[in-house]
Design goal:
Number of strands: 8
CATH architecture: Up-down Bundle
Strand order of the largest sheet: 2-3-5-6-7-8
Radius of gyration: 40 Å
CATH topology: Outer membrane efflux proteins (OEP)
Number of domains: 1
Distance between the termini: 55 Å
Strand content: 15-25%
Low-confidence stretches: 1-23
Order of helices and strands: HEHHEEHHEHHEEEEHHH
CATH class: Mainly Alpha
Mean pLDDT: 86
CATH superfamily: Outer membrane efflux proteins (OEP)
Length: 462
């Protein structure tokens, strides 16, 4: 029982610590999400998009009847004759019966514009997230390089201490000690410069994330990581399907097609029904009423515009009326006759551009895969060079013990080895950048490239 109680107490004490560590840690994907959430420009753009969506929803009002209410009082005082006091109250209704699909097509065009704007918002969010991921990589790379330089500096200090003792014993020259001091000074300058750059990077990274200080960065620059890449053909196929540039190009083609249909149907006449009801009289309660029902047809083309209206009215108990009106305007807008040809030409241009982009995206996806392969080969060669450099350092230490070289020469070899180790970190960072570039090209989230490549490999084996 006591053991169980002790375990429960330890769990209660450790849980807040573990939870805090989990909450304070940060991955590549989480960094992108925090940057997106902290972006004021993106919030403003999304709010504007939401307002436009709301305005588009209220556009349904065009399908419903339009009602108007009029109130008037006409008082006339005459020096000769009888004064008159006329009061009128009226309600009018107008209902669109048929407009050749103009409103529907117009709403479709607006919807496409909103979809394109939404796609651009997604791309904007992706760019903001990518800036955070790039800043994350830069911080990781700089921290790793700083660790390498600090470790190398400790080794160089130890070699300088030994060299100083050798000079005191007369086993080495004082000029070698001076050269060693210069090498240490250069190493300190490099460390201080890198520390300043790293501090600035961390501040900028925290600003991108909207945080006052950086949490624990749990990602690392793993130089021994095995990468999994999709074949070039599979990457090209996925890029042609969901690359953001191609998605926007398809939106543009669909929009141009809708615009062409809209202009082609502009000659179709519109049909409207109107109704009016009114009350009138000289005093309250108003005793006279009237109503009317009408039909109007509007036929418009670049060459002719014709409006026909028919209206029937009744004012009880005996008065009835009918009105027929026709208005004809020749050549209202001849220049608009070229609108259809212009829309067709614009559509053809968008289709040609899409074909070019489609082919180019496929080639660029294959090139991005090759770039990842080259970056990986560069990393492998850098690791091999660093391994050979370690072996060379070991041999130079043996040669130093045999008296074939000076300790200053060994320090120079150690400095060269530091540069090789830094080159390994830089090559690993370049590989991360190349993989992320391919993921963006394929519209994948950070870390999904390996899953996609594995899935493709499984499909090929099946």
């Amino acid at each position: 029982m006591q053991k169980i109680l002790v375990i429960l107490i330890l769990c209660c004490l450790l849980y807040p610590v573990l939870y805090a560590n989990e909450a304070d840690s940060l991955t590549f994907a989480q960094a992108g999400q925090l940057a997106v959430a902290a972006s004021a420009d993106l919030r403003h753009a999304r709010t504007s998009q939401s307002l436009m969506e709301g305005a588009w929803s209220w556009g349904l009002r065009a399908y419903f009847p339009r009602m108007g209410i009029t109130v008037s009082e006409n008082d006339r005082l005459q020096q000769i004759g009888t004064d008159s006091f006329v009061k009128n109250y009226g309600i009018s209704l107008e209902q669109l019966v048929w407009d050749g699909g103009r409103i529907s097509m117009s709403r479709k065009l607006e919807r496409m514009e909103l979809d394109i704007a939404s796609s651009r918002l997604n791309r904007m969010a992706g760019e903001i997230a990518e800036s955070a991921i790039a800043a994350y990589r830069n911080v990781l790379s700089s921290r790793t390089i700083l660790e390498i330089r600090n470790s190398a500096y400790v080794v160089l200090e130890e070699q300088r201490r030994i060299l100083n003792e050798e000079v005191n014993l007369g086993l080495a020259l004082a000029v070698d000690l001076a050269s060693a001091d210069m090498n240490l000074a250069d190493a300190r300058i490099d460390i201080y410069s890198l520390q300043l750059d790293l501090a600035e990077m961390e501040k900028q990274f925290a600003e991108i994330l909207g945080l006052e200080s950086l949490p624990i960065l749990i990602e690392s620059v793993d130089i021994n990581r095995q990468i999994v890449l999709p074949v070039a053909s599979a990457a090209a196929a996925l890029a042609r399907e969901q690359n953001p540039d191609l998605v926007e190009a398809r939106f543009s083609i669909t929009k141009k097609q809708a615009e062409l249909r809209y202009i082609s149907n502009s000659w179709i006449p519109t049909l409207r029904l109107t109704g009016n009801f009114g009350l009138s009289g000289q005093r309250y309660p108003l005793t006279r009423h009237n109503w009317s029902v009408g039909l109007s047809i509007d036929f418009s083309t670049p060459w002719i515009q014709n409006q026909v209206g028919v209206q029937a009215s009744w004012e009880p108990p005996h008065d009835r009326g009918a009105i027929v009106q026709n208005s004809l305007t020749p050549l209202p807008d001849p220049a608009s006759s070229f609108s259809r040809e212009q829309a067709a030409l614009s559509l053809a241009l968008e289709q040609e551009k899409y074909i070019v982009i489609h082919e180019r995206i496929g080639r660029m996806a294959a090139t991005a895969v090759e770039k990842c392969i080259f970056a990986n080969q560069k990393l492998i060669l850098s690791i091999e060079a660093a391994t050979l450099g370690n072996e060379r350092c070991r041999i130079e230490e043996i040669r130093l013990n045999l008296g074939h070289i000076t300790r200053l020469r060994l320090m120079e070899v150690l400095i060269e080895q530091t540069q090789r180790e830094i080159a390994v970190v830089q090559a690993a960072t370049s590989l991360l950048e190349a993989e992320r570039e391919l993921e963006r090209f394929l519209d994948l989230e950070p870390g999904e490239l390996a899953e996609f490549a594995t899935a493709i490999s499984s499909q090929r084996r099946d």
